[in-house]
Amino acid sequence: LNGRKAVVANAEAADMIVVSARESGEAGDEAGISLFLVPADAKGLTVTGYALLAGGRAAEVTLDDVTLPESARLGAAGKAFDAIEARTAVATTALCAETLGAMETACTLTREYLGTRKQFGRPIGSFQALAHRMSDLLIDLEQARSAVINAAGHLADDRASRERHVSAAKNLMGRVGRLVSEDTIQMHGGIAMTQEYELAHIAKRITMADHRFGDVDHHLERFIALSAA
């Protein structure tokens, strides 16, 4: 095996790494991709770890003439695309659920802050403009929750239905996530940007989640293509 895999989450902690590799065909072809189980200490395998901006760690995995036995291939040769796509759908839905939890925490912190921070002798949450803004966020949060539940409920569907519901959820989570991140920071003011405050880290987590497994634009285009098929 030869090649490089970028931003592999927690690769440093793995004893075995599942690697997708093309055995035949051209780039972009669904056929010809296989999965291989590679020991982390295999000769020619290099794992270079680093910290992520939103917390956690990832690594660049480089394969330089890594030699494996035939038994290292998982499943039939060149037939791994469907399995990869199905597992990616599960991972994407799980990421959406994680992002939903982060957004819930961001909204909870903001509601608490609006109830304790005072201006002109009363909590700023009593001011109509902020109260309405918070209400809008909570409505969007419930819409996002429904999208995640809907996607999870369709993971066992046929490919088109599964992928369509997952893309719809991922697109919505990206849009609502950005809104929640920006609005909760703005309603807090400068304190939300400090290293010591929890919301700053949550907002980064929400923002970076949009760029994993396809962002808002990718999943909008994918949803349109799947719906038109």
Automatic annotation (TrEMBL):
SUPFAM superfamilies per UniProt: Acyl-CoA dehydrogenase C-terminal domain-like (SSF47203), Acyl-CoA dehydrogenase NM domain-like (SSF56645)
Gene3D superfamilies: Butyryl-CoA Dehydrogenase, subunit A, domain 2 (2.40.110.10), Butyryl-CoA Dehydrogenase, subunit A, domain 3 (1.20.140.10)
Database matches in InterPro entries: Acyl-CoA_Oxase/DH_mid-dom (IPR006091), Acyl-CoA_Oxase/DH_mid-dom_sf (IPR046373), AcylCo_DH-like_C (IPR036250), AcylCo_DH/oxidase_C (IPR009075), AcylCoA_DH/oxidase_NM_dom_sf (IPR009100)
Any one Pfam family match given in the protein's UniProt record, by short name: Acyl-CoA_dh_1
Stretches assigned to the Acyl-CoA dehydrogenase/oxidase C-terminal domain: 83-207
Positions of the Acyl-CoA oxidase/dehydrogenase middle domain: 1-63
Assigned keywords, A-Z: FAD, Flavoprotein, Oxidoreductase
Keyword Flavoprotein: yes
GO molecular function terms listed in the Swiss-Prot or TrEMBL record: acyl-CoA dehydrogenase activity
Manganese listed as a keyword: no
Similarity remark: Belongs to the acyl-CoA dehydrogenase family.
PANTHER family documented for this protein: ACYL-COA DEHYDROGENASE, ACYL-COA DEHYDROGENASE FADE28
Name under which the protein is recorded: Acyl-CoA dehydrogenase/oxidase C-terminal domain-containing protein
Species: marine sediment metagenome
